[in-house]
Every structure is written in structure tokens, then in C-alpha cells.
Fold these 2 entries.
Entry 1:
Amino acid sequence: MLAQHGFRAGRYRVAYQACDDSRPNEGADPALCAANARAYALDASLIGVIGAFDSGCTGVELPTLNAAPSGPVPIISPSNTYVGLTHAGPATAADEPDRYYPTGARNYVRLVAADDYQSAGIDLFLKQQGRKRLYLLDDGEGTGYAGAVYGQQAARKVGIGIAGSATWDPTARSYHRLAQGIARSRADAVLLSGCVCSNGLTLITGLRAVLHDTATLIGTDNFSTSDGFTHAHGRFDGVYISSAGLPALALPPPGRRFLATLLPGRRMDDIDQSASYAAQATELLLDAISRSNGTRASVTRELIATNTNHGITGPISFDTGGDPAPAPIAIYRIDSNAPRNPHHSVQGEVFDRVIKVPRALIH
Amino acid sequence: MNGNRGVRTLDFGAAHSVDGVAANADTVWIASGSDDRVLRVDMLTARVVASIPIAAVAQASVASPYTIAIGDGAVWVTDALSDSVSRIDPTLDAVTATIKVGRRPTRLAIGERGVWVLNAGDGTVMRIDPRRNAVVATIPVGADATGIAAGLGGVWVSVGGGPPHATFPSVHGPLSALSSPSCSPVVGGGRGAELLIASDLPRRLADPAPSH
């Protein structure tokens, strides 16, 4: 993207460094995140950061970048979803998001919807499916618990009743009793908020053995897996999974054209979402720099003032907290016969639809 | 089968997918990733005459045959999700060797004294010696490689997303480089670069960690 722009942003010539905050096959490393943040904060010529990929890493970096000696460094993340980075909610810490902005000035925006929007999107999807009674399950971890809380909050607003809630035990060998309890609650939908790594496949198997097709099962984005669905002989087919942002298949024409040029010959469903969102983040930062007076404060102002209808990922603007609008949520359906996508990190899912979540459902 | 102005369409049914295709004489070979099979199609009769199972290597659960090519007396297929290449003997219609390669092998070329495999997941090209059924060389080509061909005395790799970073002019202007060891050299901007942008993202295809 930078090369396409000739390393220019309006009248400014820009240079680039790619930094990595992760260890191979381990994901983000907080120590690397902290080291990167210190390096960013000490470099007066740094005008902006694209990242981090992981919310936890952003949480480590934000306070350092906000308090940088030469002024808060503008940051745009293509992928963060943790709610507390931008706004408070029923499952955020008491000092969030203020702890990330010690100067009091905001310097962060994100491109995809926060987790509370994702849970609300799930509720809207279930409403579209005609579901009336939702049972909330979480894996007891922070992200899972938060997703269930946000799901409960939005369910009331969209007119879905809460049939019950529970935390599943990731070490359990059977979920038969849990499933029987859900059946007795007469739930016609179950939210699985947590990680597939928390014994999620056994959980689904147990729920289906009792509930059969009487309840729609839908997992939050952590239920995606690289190949757990593809060799299960259809056992998980028909379960839904949500994810913030749009897959390549659902991008508007500018996004599809961009990807076709970047990755010629590649099927759209074999392109990871992160490619288009990283490009969009770069484009918006360059636009903000081009409209600025070359200072960090000015770039931050212009970044937050972004309002475009022709982005790679579609129309986008930000609220004062840095959250995107619109905030689409994609719904996927598990299908063991889905085309294999070797360039994609997730297998066995097919894109089902996009849910647009109104801001009024959150605030 | 439908015929229309020289175009023939074969329908293999919902059980199969068509991820890769190669042809010789009267035979077309199809890589079907969805059911881990290679189909042999007799074009004289337009019928599938063999359905060859492609097994995943021990550490993987699915093989997902993806790209297919013919050469050195064999049919070669990349098993994109089990990080291997399968060699099929066309006289037996059976896999006679499974060769472990790099991460996410997605492209294949045959010629110039080897079977050449592009591993999209780790940005390498590997050369397989067909006499030994073994990888004999590994060449880093970068994460954005998209295609490979062998011929004219060399092996050619296409790279998406613009030129590789190393070809951009280095910066000698007023910028100072970021000091973190995880950061690449400064690229772009030329001597007059005034402002620096950093990305803070994983640089390799990762296993799913969708909670961002």
C-alpha cells in the first residue's frame, strides 16, 4: 500500500519500518510489545503506528505511546476488539479506558467492531432467525465472560428473552447434564462465548446430543479453528460463528479490486480478512497525514475525523472514542464440505451474512 | 457433461471440489481438497476412472490436495493443509511417496532438474529430487510469493503486493530508525523522507487466534 502511494502522503515523504510483536506460533509477546512501544515513544520522527494485531498488545503499548515525549503517537489497529481500549462496559475494568490515555488525549482508533458489538450482532442474527429464548454459556475466561455479559445486555434490547446462563467447565468429560438443563430452559438458541480451546468441540457435541436441532448454536470468534471442523464428518455442520469485520467475499468493489491486484488469481474466500484491514488502516493513516500539518496532534485529529464512503473495507468513520462506524459483524456457518483455503488461517466455515449493529444497541 | 462451442463441462458432484487440474494425453487429473482425493478422468469417456485417496501426514488431520502437476513419470500434488507433497504413480493410481515440505504448499512446478514447491505459509521454495523423493534445497523467497514456474534455465517466482522491501531505497535523511530488534530496516521515502510509519503486526501466517 505504501509503495502504491510512492511512499508519499500528500506533501510528505514517508518511510516505513515493519515491526513484529509476536513469537512464531505463540502470538503476541507482551515483552516484545513493551519493547516496541518504548522504541516508538523515543523516536520523534515516528508519525503513526499501524497495529497492534492483538488487543492485549495494544493494551501494553497504548499508555507508553500516549505519554511519548514528542506527543501522543497516532495508532490505528486493523483488528483489535477488546472493549476497554475505547469505552467502558459492564465487563471492563473500572479504570478502562482511561488507563490507556494518561495524558487525557485520545490517540487510538480501530477498524473492526469491539466485542460488545459482536455480541449484539449475534443477538440480531438470532432475532432474524426467529429465535426467542437465548441461553448464555461462557468458558469462565475474561473474554468469554465478557461476551456473555454483552450478549445478555443486547438481547433485551432486541427483544430476545434470556432462558438462562452458565459457565462450562473446560475440563469436563461430558456436558450431558449441562445440555439437559438448557433443554429444560426451553432455549431455542445458545451463545457459546469463549474459546474452542476450552474443550469447545466436546461441548458442541454434548449440546447437540441432547438439543439436536431445537436450538441454534453460535460461537464467538474464538470458536474458529484451523481444521477442527473439517475432519469431523459433519458433526459440527450448521453451528454458526461470528467475527468482527468483513471477509474478502463481502467487501465492496474497491476492496475486491485491491485484493485481486494484490493476490492475482486467489479465490476471495481464500484470502484472510487481515490483508484488507491492514491495507485499509495504512490507507487511512496516509490520508490523515496528507491532510495534517505534519505533527502527531494534527494527524490524530485528522485520523479521528476520517469519513469516507469508498474505503477498501467500505464506508468508515470513527466516534470520539475511536470506535468505527459502521461496525459490521460477519456470521459464518460451519460446513465440513467448505472449500479448503490454504492461505486462510481458518478452515471449515462458509460466509453466511453480514449483520449491521446500530450504535444504539451498545450505548 | 455439457458441450457448447468447444467447451466441455464436467460435474464431479458435491462430494468433490476442483482445486487443481493437470492434463496429459487423454487424462485429466483433478485435486479435490474437500475430500482429500485426486480424481483421474478419462477424457475419451469423460468418466472418473480412479479416485485416489491422499493421506495427511501423521501430525495433520486433513491433506487438502490443492495444486497438481505432471512430470518425471509421476503426478505430483501439494497437500496444502498437511504441509506435504504426494507423488502418484499413474500406472498404479496410488500414492507412492509423501514428502514433508514447508508450511502451506500452494504451488508446484516441474522442470530444471527438480519438482519445485512454493510454500506460501513460510515464504520458501523447496526443490524435491524426484529420484530420491526428498527435499534437497530450500530457498527463501518472501511471504508475498504467489506463483512459480520452471523453464528457460531457471525457476521463476511471482511476488504479489509490489517489490520486496529490499529493493526500496534505504533512507539517509533526517529520520532515525526505530531501535527495537523486532523492527525491519527503514524502507521507502528516499533521502527526503520526513516522517516514519511503523506497523506492529505479526509478519507470518499464524494459526487462528481470532480474539483480537
Note: Chain A is about 30% helix and 20% strand.
Entry 2:
Amino acid sequence: MRNEYIPYPAIIKSIQAESFDTKTFRVVFEDKDLAVNFDYKSGQFMEVSLLGLGEAPISITSSPVQKGFLEFTIRGMGRLTQAILQLNIEDKIHLRGPYGNSFPFEEVKGKNLYFVAGGIGLPPLRSLIQTVFNKRADFGKVKILYGAKTPDMLCFKDELKSWSGIADTEVLLTVDEPDGNWRGNVGVVTGLWDKTDIDGAGGIAYVCGPPIMIKFVIAKLLKSGFKEENIYVTLERYMKCGIGKCGHCNIGEKFVCIDGPVFSYSRLEKFPDKERAIA
Amino acid sequence: MKQFVLKKDNVRDLCIAACGEWETYVPVESAGRDVHFLKIEDENKESLLDKLALDYEYTVVPPKILAFPQLESLFEFGEQKIAETAKPSAKRFLFGLRACDVKAILFLDDFYRRNFEDIYYLNKSNNKLLVIVGCKKPLENCFCTSARTGPFLQKGFDLQLVDVGDEYVVEAGSKKGEEFVNSYKKFFDKVSKDDVENSKITKRVAREAVAIRLDFEKAIKRFCEDKIPTQIYERIAERCIYCGGCLYVCPTCSCFNVFDERKGNFGRRSRNWDACVFEGYTREASGHNPRSEKWIRTSRRYEHKLKYDYLVTGMSGCVGCGRCLTSCPVHIGISQVIEEVSKT
């Protein structure tokens, strides 16, 4: 019997500051076989540990099309994540996983893809965005709608620029609180609906962000003609074990850790109202 | 089903003999009169068996604690290196369980095997012999006949003992149970026609003594139809002090928290019992809490047992043991909720 609770050591190989409170860590498993052979799907998460401080579920930000390393974008929010932000290159963390389901990928080939993210909600989607761009010709139009509180708090600033240069791809950004240098859109992410053409017929939408944002984005998507089963939301919940045992992430008879974190809106709708994952 | 007889005078010697081969647990009365399942070993067997309490009313702490301790180390670490602590237990002989608690053990076994296997639980639970000593005098808060979990079972146990006076009629519910009787046959006798008739009387008397009668099926149907008036939860929320005690003593509650401790370079990761009625149970680091309202946590607590467990396993997560009501400082029990819901 495998002991799923034992994590494996990994070494931080590079650190990219995304904003004042968020960094992207590239890590490589210490074990050479694991480093080379580790496989996962876009949308899955890992349990990330600092021994002595604890463990938290963090979605994998990198794409499985790039082997040999994993990336995690982490905002300093609680005790553990704040301590992770203090780490340096060559420091050790511990990982176990991958856990959870993943975004539908093969099934959506040929379709127009819409990614809608708020704040720290882009990192989980970035894995899929990279996977899609790795086979760009297999998909229709790609639109990335991304909002953050301030310009500084937008993740992957350089990548956002390079994505907008890819054929048939549009990147729309907005911030709530612009600074002096910001020349772009101001306001919530649903405000971007006025800036581009969003046609839900035959389109697939991937949504990640704070609960209140998810709620308003879903309303907009439905209005734009997306089918309920074509809207995918990746949820965040307080989690401990990641393997459907500790109970914390339960919603109805499901566990976000093993039945999710990706749920179609048609599935989300079936959750009892009072336990809805979205606000 | 094969039947045998075990004279009460032989119980002590059987337990002593069994503990040579099995890790043997029996119900023992403590100084405070509470009964706990304790391991009998060479050095303590006489003193513990002096306090063997097979006619106990109930154990405050359910037998889940034998495989799911309240606090358990998952692994230790030093200098960033992990030392695994999981190791399989010896085969276990659990003697003197109540029927409802055996149902709960089977429920938890299934839960910990489903999807990912939980090695810490299964190490302790995979190799065991479940021996029921059926309830003769059910407590006032029990409702096992309504939950169909007792006071005696048809299956699920390895051996089931039915008190018929100076002896027990022993029913073998599995091959493992039969093999156990064969390996310790000097303690067992042949069963007579009278014994069998007497065992039926004992079962009937016990069944009729269960005072609380609930329309369990109807309540579960209501829960599954999602037709529970929220006032039921709101009224409980007004009185409940959210201490979590009912969930700690619930024989099927399995939620746990995981935490790290560290001293210098050394430390350990452990898990301990948690409860879904706690405000911090679903609170995220950002402060966002999908179940910040008390009545929503209350609805989760009851719907998990009576709806979601049923949807996933076909079995209710409540086995009718009555511990939640018995332990509650403000006199709330799941039986009251079942009764109220079945009348809606």
C-alpha cells in the first residue's frame, strides 16, 4: 500500500517576482527519476510543504508539455505561503501529488477558448494556456480576459505581452486601481465584455478567481450564449489531505480535491445552494 | 450460519489465550466508570480482565479510536529528511463490540479504502476479527432498530455473541470467525436446540427494549429530495454551542486536521480529529469562508450523515448509537433531527 501522505523533496531552481506579494517558483524534484518522469495534467494541484510549518494545495502553474520542472505561483497569504516567499534558490521544499482532475483538453480541440481570470486566478489557467499554445493550430480563437486589483498585481506580465502576439489570440487586461503609468482598462473583469466580441456559441470558457468574480463572470458568460456544460470553473477550498480523506473541501457529496478542482458550471449548479462554492 | 456455545466462565481464558496470537482489545471499566476498549498484554491481562465489562452500556469514545486515534503522527523529520512511521499492526481481535459500532467500523473501512487508500487507518484495520457481544439493555438514546444497525446483526461480523444466561450462543458470520472458533475449540461447546431458542428470545427482548422509534427511511428520503426547511437548522443553530463533541464521539465521523510541529531541526507532521461544525473548518487563509454561518455548518453536519453518505454508499452515516445526544451539553441529538424531518 502506498503512503500518499509522504511528500518528496524538491529544490527551488529559479524565482520570478510577479508582484509585491506573489512569486513564481520553478522547482525540480531531488530524485532524478521523479524529476524526469513526473507527469501531470493542466488543472491539477500539488500539496506543497515546508516541513515544520505545514502543507497547502497549490495549483501547478507550469504546463506538462515542458518536462523536468514544476512551477507554482504563490501569493503570501497565510503563515505557510508567507514563509515560502522568503525562500531562496537552492532551498528545499516538499511536494506530493499531482491531485485532482484537470481541464478538458482533447475534447475542446477546434473550439474557441475563453480564459477569464481574476488576480491570483490566472496561475492555474496559465498551465492550460501554455498547453494550448503548444498546439496552437489545434484550437480556434483564444481570448484571455484578466483583471487584477492593481497593475503590479497582474501575474506573468511579460508572458501576457507575448501571448497577445500569438495568431488569433487576444489578451485583454483591466485593473481596479490604476497607477500613473497604466493606460489600459479600468474596472472589473466583466467590464471587458464591452471591449471585445464574445460569442459563447460553440465556445469553451475557463474561469478562475475570487468567488464574487466567478459569480458575475458566469452570469456574463451565460448571457453571451455559453452552454452551462462549456463553462469550467476551478475552485479553491481549504484543504488538508488532498486525497478525499480529511473532509475539509467537501461540497455536497463531492470533494474538491478528488472530484475537482475543475467543475463544469452544469455540475456546480447541482450543488446545494447553501454550499455553493461561489459566493 | 454455524453456531457454538461459549460459557461465560470461559471468556477470561479465551481472551488470555487469544492475546498470545492476536492484539486483543476488550471493553474495560475505568476508575471513572467509563468503559474503553483496551489492549490486553501479558503484563496487564489479569488486572484488565478483572474489570472486563461485557454488559457495558456504551463506550463514550467509539471504537473508531483503535484505528483512527485522536492524535496520530504521520511522519517525523530531521535535517529535512523524512522518516516514515506507518507500519502494519499485528492482527487484531476486537472482542465485545456492539452491533451499531461494528456497522460503523465497516462504514469507515469502506471510506478509508475508497479512492486513495489511507495507509495509517488501514494498517490498523485491515487484519482484524470483529466480535459482537449484542446489547441486552439498549440505552434510552439508542435507535438502532430504526437505523437497522442492531441490537444484533445478520452479517458483517466475524462472531456474534448472544447472552442466554450463563453462556453465550456464538454465531459465526464469516469463515474467519469459524476458523477462530476451530483454533480455540477447547473454549467452545456444541449448541443445543434450547440455546438457539433462548438466543432468539434474547434478541427479541433487546429489540423490543429499544425505546426510540424513528421513520429513518422517510427522513433519508426527505434529505435526498433536498426538502429540509432551513428553520430546522436555524433552530438548532440558536442552541448549539459548536463544541464539536457530537462529532468526536460519532463512530463514523472521520474528519481530521493536519499540523506540523518543530523543535530545532526535528519535528513531526500529525493529524488529529476535526469537526465540520467548527468555524475554522472551511476558513481559507484569505479569510473567505464558504460556511461562516452557523446554520450552514449545522446543515452540513446532518446532511453529510443522512444524505451524502447515503448517496455515495447506500448506507446512512448515522448508525443510531445515540452518542451525540448522550454527550451533548445542550441536549441536541441526530435522533431529534431525524424525527422532525420525517414529519415534514
Note: Chain B has a mean pLDDT of 95.
